[in-house]
Design brief:
Largest sheet: 7 strands, mixed
Distance between the termini: 41 Å
CATH superfamily of the largest domain: Type I PLP-dependent aspartate aminotransferase-like (Major domain)
Strand content: 5-15%
Number of domains: 2
Helix content: 25-40%
CATH class of the largest domain: Alpha Beta
CATH topology of the largest domain: Aspartate Aminotransferase, domain 2
Shape: globular
CATH architecture of the largest domain: 3-Layer(aba) Sandwich
Bound molecules: pyridoxal-5'-phosphate
Order of helices and strands: HHEHEHEHEHEEEEEHHHEEEHHHEHE
Number of helices: 13
Strand order of the largest sheet: 1-9-8-5-4-2-3
């Protein structure tokens, strides 16, 4: 059996006729932009997150851009975020003309290191963007306390964490704005690109709504330079079918994560993610710190990547060896993310040297995401576990490399 890192085929089978019906209805209605499906989804999603407003838009990236613009973030402003995230978090900051200021990751949670935020605050700091990376909630109690002490806005990047909670409250309901992505691999996926912003602030909601439609509060009156970032009616219809199933899917992700944690607990060579209440397990990310067994010695064929060596990044031989060996045994995995944001060629101009974010840089050489999605069968998960056991029980643990910043 080949185990994919993610697959929609079982879900499409399960939802088949409901999804097809919903999409066909939109198609036949001729109402492709705006309309009842959008309103229905925005209301249901706001209720799900527990905010007064949810505004649909074209993607999670646009959600971040709309939030930044509605909160007045622009040229001359700094926005603090984590160097260990998907590129879009920083890209959104740059695209509104502000400057991303990176903070290193916490080695235990992989999330923004809360102990290092205050040192990064300057008079130009306008906002914080904590990222609920891999579906794990950031400690929003601490983030909101810091933000209010320093008069900063908070935009939660919830792209990977739809359905996650911090102290029993949904992520996306703590900050000024919550930004969600419905990219197909996220916890709640559309059939294409889609996103939403959530907020309790009426004015911010209205501004985001207008910016997403050419800064147009009423037809052909343009009060701001916005752009076009609407949620399509077909995507809203798909999301309306799927949203009621979200909490069930999160329960299934949790059950799979707990099973991995139990079955892989004593395996040498990998460090498991710590469990956490409210984690929505969009990814199950282990750190690989073994050496390849001596008979498969040294240089794995897939390593090092030309790009990472060109940019002076360390090679990740044992991780790449494990990834390739899993692949050879029918288990596909993904590396989120091989290159930290501050070391991406697009940010060369920031001049952030190798070594400036040591925990993030090390995570990028060690992380490996094991297959996890609600429909992953017990049999398939057992195969992942068995292959890992076979590969790692013969492995030599590397000399302990402390994860200190
Ligand atoms: C996916 C993702 C985004 C962007 O969402 P899109 O819908 O793909 O534009 C932003 N931030 C993070 C952390 C993500 O994982």
């Amino acid at each position: 059996m080949q185990v994919p890192p993610f697959s929609l085929s079982q879900q499409i089978n399960d939802l088949g006729s409901d999804l097809e019906q919903a999409v066909l209805e939109v198609l036949r209605s001729g109402q492709y932009i705006g309309g009842a499906q959008i309103q229905l989804f925005e209301q249901a999603f706001a209720d799900n997150v527990g905010t007064r407003h949810a505004v649909g838009c074209n993607s999670g990236t646009d959600a971040l851009i709309l939030a930044l613009r509605a909160l007045g973030v622009g040229p001359g402003d700094q926005v603090i975020t984590c160097a260990f995230s998907f590129f879009a978090t920083a890209e959104a900051i740059s695209s509104v003309g502000a400057e991303p200021v990176f903070v290193d990751a916490n080695p235990d949670t992989y999330l923004i290191n809360l102990d290092q935020i205050e040192a990064a605050i300057t008079p130009a700091t306008k906002a914080l963007i904590p990222v609920h990376l891999f579906g794990r909630p950031v400690d929003m109690t601490r983030v909101m306390a810091m933000a209010s002490a320093h008069g900063l806005r908070v935009i939660e990047d919830c792209a990977q964490a739809t359905g996650a909670t911090w102290q029993d409250q949904a992520v996306g309901s703590f900050g000024d704005v919550g930004c969600f992505s419905f990219f197909p691999t996220k916890n709640l996926g559309a059939a294409g690109d889609a996103g939403a912003v959530t907020t309790n602030n009426d004015d911010v909601a209205q501004t985001m709504r207008e910016l997403a439609v050419h800064g147009m509060p009423q037809r052909y009156l343009h009060t701001a330079l916005g752009y076009n970032s609407r949620l399509d009616a077909i995507q809203a219809a798909v999301l309306n079918v799927k949203l009621p199933l979200l909490s069930d899917w999160i329960d299934k992700r949790r059950a799979l994560a707990e099973r991995y944690l139990e079955l892989l607990a004593d395996l040498p060579g990998i460090t498991l993610p710590s469990d956490e209440d409210g984690h929505s397990w969009n990814q199950f990310v282990v750190r690989v710190n073994c050496c390849a067994p001596s008979d498969s010695l040294g240089q794995p064929e897939s390593s090092p990547s030309a790009i990472s060596s060109r940019h002076g990044l360390p090679e990740s031989t044992s991780r790449d060896w494990l990834k390739q060996s899993l692949q050879d045994n029918g288990v596909s995995t993904i590396i989120y993310y091989p290159i930290p944001i501050h070391r991406q060629p697009a940010y060369d101009h920031l001049n952030l040297q190798s070594g400036s974010m040591p925990t993030t840089e090390r995570l990028c050489t060690q992380v490996l995401s094991l297959p996890i999605f609600p429909e992953l069968s017990e049999l398939a998960q057992q195969q992942v576990v068995s292959v890992l056991q076979q590969l790692l029980n013969g492995s030599v643990p590397a000399a302990p490399a402390p994860m200190v910043a």
